[in-house]
């Protein structure tokens, strides 16, 4: 037990308005406390219900460091269970996805469980008669997580039995998810294939902060996006010439500071926020034939226009996902250690929309987020350098001060200049809140 365990004051002292202590990124004890407190008390993204369309379909993942199974129960509801046999702990499901039929069967001694976790049968059950098994947690079956909420297909869970409600946790930030789903003429999304997976040797929060870091694209991505723009010019094209889809995607990364300042950043309570309030790097993609017509048929022209005029850039849902509504992406930053993060980047099909939209979405994911991308590498290099650089002694604090104001109130929604680091401060404010929500003090623990 180190100095932060059962010491909420010490944890809270790591965040002080304009700066945060390096231990939040590099200290293994802080990482363990994040798993135990932050990821248990917050609502964490699990998966999309189109990953488990049929009864008995399951998907294995983790919430923080907790292995879980998302499964469609016989009543068609999505359940989230700890991936652990109540008998001796064996993981019940190993495959990433599959169909288990009406029940799970443990591969070790064949105890079986309904898809809501309830114990179904034990071989040679008479050996437990009179032993009181039914009164124990073991006798009840696989344990379900504290709470699950399916919001328009997106499944979130809270590990803790008690805590903040889904609606209070997300509040008005759900408008970004709404816009992504509303872009489907059927009002429905479907996950399109497995995610791109990319391992990063850095802390998970660096990736989350980067999603609203608007002062880095024109600098860190000059090598990739800048080169593409230069080649475009060298070929004799101008800014206004129609661009092929790949150029439409990559050129806006080189937009000047002014573009990002004017695009705006909105912050919501509990650590959520988004860039691209007024416009974004996704605003000027060319129209796909037939799409607007399909949307208009569903919503009417006025609403269809309103849906498409919302071009939010990156929406961060605290603690560890980001979505891009206009291009139907969702990225999960899965913490594996203080200095190790797995990134999974999903794309979604807009049900009843033309296929060209999915082609562009897939192209974006490959170009920007894939381990074989040309843009994601720029960011990776910066994160990994930061993770190493933070070990330099003599300076212990990381700066998050841009456009800082005294007495910032993170309980209110705000729209600010698009280069503010307010959203990073908002995340750290929420970080302290959920880290310390159920942390006992040393005195109480003794
Ligand atoms: S460990 Fe699962 S049935 Fe024994
Ligand atoms: Fe970047």
Automatic annotation (TrEMBL):
Residues 43-123 form the Rieske domain. One of its GO terms (molecular function) is iron ion binding. The keyword Iron applies. CDD domains: RHO_alpha_C_AntDO-like. It comes from the Bacteria. Keywords: 2Fe-2S, Dioxygenase, Iron, Iron-sulfur, Metal-binding, Oxidoreductase. Coiled coil: none annotated. Belongs to the bacterial ring-hydroxylating dioxygenase alpha subunit family. This is Phenylpropionate dioxygenase, large terminal subunit. It comes from Lutimaribacter saemankumensis.
């Amino acid at each position: 037990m180190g100095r932060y365990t059962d010491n909420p004051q010490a944890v809270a002292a790591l965040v002080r308005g304009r700066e945060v202590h390096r231990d939040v990124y590099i200290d293994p004890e802080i990482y363990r406390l994040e798993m135990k407190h932050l990821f248990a008390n917050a609502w964490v993204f699990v998966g999309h219900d189109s990953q488990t369309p049929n009864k008995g379909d399951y998907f294995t993942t983790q919430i923080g460091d907790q292995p879980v199974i998302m499964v469609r129960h016989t009543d068609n509801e999505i359940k989230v269970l700890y991936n652990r046999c109540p008998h001796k702990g064996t993981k019940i499901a190993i495959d990433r996805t599959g169909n288990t039929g009406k029940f799970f069967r443990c591969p070790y001694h064949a105890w079986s469980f309904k898809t809501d976790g309830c114990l179904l049968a034990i071989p040679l059950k008479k050996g437990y008669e009179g032993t009181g098994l039914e009164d124990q947690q073991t006798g009840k079956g696989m344990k379900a997580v504290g709470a699950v909420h399916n919001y328009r297909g997106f499944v979130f869970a809270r590990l803790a039995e008690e805590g903040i409600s889904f609606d209070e946790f997300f509040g008005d930030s759900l408008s970004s998810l709404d816009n992504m789903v509303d872009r489907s003429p059927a009002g429905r999304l479907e996950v399109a294939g497995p995610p791109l997976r990319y391992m990063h040797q850095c802390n998970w929060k660096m990736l989350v902060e980067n999603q609203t870091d608007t002062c880095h694209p024109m600098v860190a991505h000059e090598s990739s996006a800048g080169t593409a723009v230069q080649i475009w010019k060298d070929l004799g094209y101008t800014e206004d010439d129609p661009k092929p889809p790949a150029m439409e995607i990559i050129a806006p990364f080189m937009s000047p500071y002014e573009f990002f300042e004017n695009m705006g950043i909105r912050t919501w309570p509990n650590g959520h926020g988004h860039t691209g309030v007024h416009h974004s790097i996704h605003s000027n993609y060319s129209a796909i034939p037939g799409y607007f017509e399909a949307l208009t048929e569903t919503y009417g022209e006025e609403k269809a226009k309103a849906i498409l005029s919302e071009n939010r850039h990156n929406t961060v849902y605290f603690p560890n996902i980001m979505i891009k509504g206009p291009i139907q992406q969702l990225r999960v930053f899965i913490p594996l250690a203080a200095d190790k993060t797995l990134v999974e980047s999903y794309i979604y099909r807009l049900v009843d929309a033309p296929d060209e939209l999915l082609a562009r979405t897939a192209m974006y994911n490959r170009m920007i987020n894939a381990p074989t991308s040309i843009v994601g590498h720029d960011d990776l290099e910066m994160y990994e350098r930061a993770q190493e650089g933070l070990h330099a002694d003599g300076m212990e604090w990381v700066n998050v001060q841009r456009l800082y104001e005294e007495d910032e109130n993170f309980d209110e929604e705000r729209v600010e200049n698009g280069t503010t680091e307010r959203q990073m401060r908002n995340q750290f404010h929420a970080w302290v809140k959920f880290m310390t929500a159920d942390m006992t003090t040393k005195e109480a623990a003794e």
